[in-house]
Structures are given as C-alpha cells and as structure tokens.
What does this fold into?
Amino acid sequence: MRNVLILPGDGIGPEVTEQCIKIIDLINSKSKNVIKYQRALFGGASIDDCGEPLSKKVLDIAMKSDAVFLGAVGGPKWETMEHDLKPEKGLLTLRKELQTFANLRPGKVFSSLASASSLRPEILNGTDIFVVRELTGGIYFGEPRFSKEIDGKRIASNPLIYNEDEIARVAKSAFEIARKRNKKVTSLDKANVLEVMQLWRDVVTEVHENAYSDIELEHLYIDNAAMQVIKRPSTFDVILASNLFGDIISDEVAELTGSLGMLPSASIGESKAIYEPVHGSAPDIAGQNIANPIAAILSLAMMYKYSFNEDNISDKIDQAITEVLDEGNRTRDISTDNNNVLNCNQMGDLIVSKLEQKL
Ligand code: NAD
It folds into this structure.
C-alpha cells in the first residue's frame, strides 16, 4: 500500500488538487498498486482552523507518508501576519522536516503551445529540460551570514559552502533521473573562479565515473549555460545545479514553456518527496473554476514516476495531457483565441477520460 498525504491548501489549490484526485481514483480502480490517500488542512486553511499553517498532527502524517501532494498556499487574508505564522512558513517547515534536498523542475514545451513562449517555435521545438537544483545547502544556508557596519561602512556576507556529501547525493539524483529520460546531464558551476565550484565539478565527475558511465555528462559554466539554454534549448536533458544557480536557471527554463499553469515540480529527499505545481494560490482567480489544472496533474505524474517507479502510468498521464492540448483544448490562461476554452473541472475530466482509454 502506498500512502499519500494530500494538502490542497488555499485559493486555486483545492480546485486543481480535486482534478488530481479524480486521476488517482481512476488509476486506483485499474491497478493492483493502490494509492491510499487522505486530505488535510495546510497553509491559510490550517491557520483558520487551528492557528498555525502546519499542525503537528499533519506533520506527523506527512512524516509517515510515502509522498506528499500539495496544491498551493497563501493569499491576501494571511499576508499581514507575522512571518513565522504565514502559510508559506508551513511549506518551508515541511521541506525542512522531510529533508527534501533536491528540487526537480521540468520545463517541457508542448508543441501545440510553442507560440506562447518568448522564443521562436523553431528554436524551441523538442525542448524538454529537467532542472535538478540542490535545495538545502549552498549560499542560502552558508554561515556565518551577517549584515553589519564596520568603520562606518556597511558590509554583508553569505558564504557559499558545500561539502562533498551534499554534492554527491544531489548528483546521484540527477543521474538517476537522466537514466529514466534521455541519459544526459549538464552540470553547471563556476569552477574557473570558485574553489567550491571546482569541488562541485570534481564530485559530480567522480559520481559519474563510479556509477553512471552510461549517462553523458557535460560541464558548463553558469554564465555560458544561461546563454546556451536560450540558444539551443532542445539539446539539454537534465540540468544539475547548486541552490543559487538552480534557482535562476529553473526560472529561465520556465519562461521557455510559456505559462505558470503548466509547470510541475517536486522536492525529493532520500525517502520522502513533496509534489506541487510551481504556481501559487492565484487569489485573483480562486473560486471561479477557471484555473489550469495541468501543472498539478503533471506534478502527480512525477509522483508516480519518482516516488512509485510507475513510469508507465506517469508517461500515460503525460500523453493524455499532450493529446488533449493537441486537440486544441485550452484553459483561459493558455488560450490565444478563446476557442475551446474549458474550465478547471472540464479540463480535468477531459484528461481523465483520455487517460481512461490508455489504462
Ligand atoms: P501565483 O502563481 O498564485 O499567480 C500569478 C499569476 O498567474 C496570477 O495572475 C494567477 O491568476 C496566474 N496563475 C497561477 N497559476 C495559475 C493556474 N494554475 N491557472 C491559471 N492561472 C494561473 O503567484 P502570486 O500571485 O505571486 O501569489 C499568490 C499567492 O500564492 C501568494 O500568497 C504567494 O505567497 C503564494 N504562493 C504560493 C506558492 C506555493 O504554494 N508553492 C508559490 C508561489 C506563490
């Protein structure tokens, strides 16, 4: 039995999550490996219920689950609260407690949506990039961090520190993912000027030589990579990057694909993982049943692949989405001509019925 905790959250979170639950129910009805799931309050919804964004009870369930699926959190109602009580704090605590050290952000261009990108379709054609970003180390966590005044001058510091274990474990994740894809990893660093990035390059090379020689490994300096991703996006498969470089390059890759409503993500650790769409709770459209559920459904497809090794099911969900889009169906955010515009439920139902034909 696989146990999944579902945290719909706030705003459009519950709307897009319900579409994912329809898909889990369908797959459960056709498969021996059933997913047992339970919903719980999280973020603003939990604050309203018990005064905190992530209650101990919910955290305990998360720790015992095989995976956590999250909609989105936040909204104007809770924006003025103290930092530590805000909905987003629940998310940071959850990631920390589950020790999810690798953030996975795929950026796949659906050919039927290529015109929504800022790049020309002929450059984008075939682009399917998967960014693996180190999430719990590097410059965002380096100590001593400070901002102070010395002799009348303001000075601030955030050290960039990695040890070899932190680099090796995220490198392994990237190579494992590449094995399930097109068997190429491009590792980003700045080894020409930073010792810590030379260590990054050395460790990635060692991990590759020791266990992943079937995967092609390319090293790029981050500045060059920022250009190459725009120039030749379709030649990349998995991009491996430190926390800071990964933060930046994953947004660059996201821009290639066009819409926030299409971007899934996962944060994975040794044994736990959190799956969630990249977008937030979209308060401007919440409650209207017009959100695009595809980012959430693609996140669910990632859960089947990376937590449960069900590549076949995961690929079928992806195919169902591709076909629905190829037939011209759109939610409002990805529509260019207002034809075939579906609401959130209708898009979910269409993907469910396409998937049903494949199972
Ligand atoms: P947002 O992603 O919620 O929305 C940005 C814009 O994109 C909005 O115009 C919204 O309508 C649109 N959009 C987003 N997802 C969409 C979808 N699935 N379908 C159609 N349109 C979509 O970002 P924001 O407005 O900056 O943040 C709103 C709230 O969400 C804030 O409280 C923020 O802190 C929170 N947030 C949460 C997460 C998370 O839960 N992981 C991530 C980002 C922001």
About this structure: The chain has a mean pLDDT of 94.
